[in-house]
Write a structure and sequence with these properties.
The chain is mostly helical and 121 residues long. It has a two-stranded antiparallel sheet. The chain is built from six helices and two strands, in the order E-E-H-H-H-H-H-H. Helix 2 packs across helix 3 (47-56), helix 2 packs across helix 4 (59-85) and helix 4 crosses helix 6 (96-119).
Length: 121
């Protein structure tokens, strides 16, 4: 049996309840941009799923996992696209601005794929 503690507010005893997910927030692991985008998507377009995950204490861990998975996938896709298109250290040494432009364009394409396949799914 679980011991429940109470606090006094006025003439009432209020139970000190904490969701499991809130207890995990002490882990200092922040949710990144993809996790925040996923949360906004769930809240706006999948409200039922959002509410169930929140009430079951699984929302924060889900958002952290989506963020981790999205970050890894962006980096993997970016490496593959850079290799395929010859965007390497040689180009960087010869024409740094061209290298930056190409890497930024490839990163945008990789992020578009990840948003569609992971974050907004």
């Amino acid at each position: 049996m679980t011991d429940i503690t109470y606090r006094v507010e006025g003439d009432h005893l209020i139970p000190n309840l904490v969701l499991d997910d809130e207890a995990d927030d002490n882990s200092e692991e922040m949710i990144g941009r993809y996790g925040m985008m996923r949360e906004s998507f769930l809240r706006e377009y999948r409200h039922g799923t959002y509410t169930v995950m929140l009430l079951m204490g699984k929302l924060k861990s889900h958002l952290r996992e989506v963020d981790r998975q999205a970050e890894e996938e962006v980096e993997c896709l970016l490496r593959q696209m850079m290799e395929k298109r010859g965007v390497d250290e040689k180009l960087k040494a010869v024409d740094q601005m061209a290298w930056v432009q190409k890497v930024n364009a490839l990163r945008a394409m990789a992020e578009e794929v990840v948003l569609r396949e992971i974050v907004y799914q």
